[in-house]
Amino acid sequence: xxxxxxxxxxxxxxxxxxxxxxxxxxxxxxxxxxxxxxxxxxxxxxxxxxxxxxxxxxxxxxxxxxxxxxxxxxxxxxxxxxxxxxxxxxxxxxxxxxxxxxxxxxxxxxxxxxxxxxxxxxxxxxxxxxxxxxxxxxxxxxxxxxxxxxxxxxxxxxxxxxxxxxxxxxxxxxxxxxxxxxxxxxxxxxxxxxxxxxxxxxxxxxxxxxxxxxxxxxxxxxxxxxxxxxxxxxxxxxxxxxxxxxxxxxxxxxxxxxxxxxxxxxxxxxxxxxxxxxxxxx
Length: 282
Ligand SMILES: NC(=O)c1ccc[n+]([C@@H]2O[C@H](COP(=O)([O-])OP(=O)(O)OC[C@H]3O[C@@H](n4cnc5c(N)ncnc54)[C@H](OP(=O)(O)O)[C@@H]3O)[C@@H](O)[C@H]2O)c1
Description:
Elements: E1 9-11, H1 17-28, E2 33-37, E3 52-55, H2 61-75, E4 80-83, H3 98-126, E5 129-134, H4 147-167, E6 172-179, H5 186-195, H6 205-219, H7 230-242, E7 249-252, H8 254-265, H9 268-278
Parallel strand pairs: 1-2, 1-4, 2-3, 4-5, 5-6, 6-7
Helix pairs in contact: 1-7, 2-3, 3-4, 5-6
Bound molecules: NADP nicotinamide-adenine-dinucleotide phosphate (NAP).
NADP nicotinamide-adenine-dinucleotide phosphate (NAP) binds next to helix 1 and helix 5.
């Protein structure tokens, strides 16, 4: 180990989608990768791509501590942390049970926060580190039915802005990645999350049904043409961690750039009017 800088990469949520694609991309390009997931069985095959695999549930303090300690024992420090684990809780605001609201924040915000706190001392010690936070275009704009998901991604944007300022002097970069629709398990998980708390006789039954259809259409059918594969995000992440002076934000997909641009330029009423063309339930 000695005084060499550790460039070991710790990635959360590698059982599928963006986390898995990023683990493969980075390992195949020579980065020492620790791919993690809640279920070790789901990532064992990543060893065949050159990754080391570890169990890590971002909602479990002991699990977070153990994973960081394992990497630090072997490498001296976590050099690159990729906070990727996350999912979208969808459904009409009024109906989402509070335990699901809490689980959404535990996973997307508090897990990322705790993991970041625990890797920072090692990064500061070696005066080199990269923290990559998976936000979303949904961290810059809000779609109906996604109140809690968007709230978590807005939180990721805000805490990344504060942290970027605080750790820059220690040689640590904070990088936010903002994908548009990416073909992963994300859409299915989001649609499944609507189910809880929505009954046929509820005043939101039509809204929630339309919401499920709109989520499906973002990944399949004609609109699905604007969705990208997870390796598109993996390539952007690799570019960002290789950059000597990375940008603070990396949008991924044309759809993300267009929608974020539209949100920036339209006043609230204008953006709501645009959304009403997409979410007409009567
Ligand atoms: N796909 C998109 O359209 C899109 C767009 C913008 C941003 N994103 C963001 O990209 C990130 C990755 O999502 P994805 O699209 O790759 O979706 P995905 O295929 O569903 O992958 C999500 C990953 O997060 C993991 N995860 C969930 N809860 C966890 C926990 N408590 N501890 C550890 N891992 C946990 C899942 O593991 P399990 O297998 O154990 O559930 C899975 O590995 C998320 O932060 C998401 O918000 C996705």
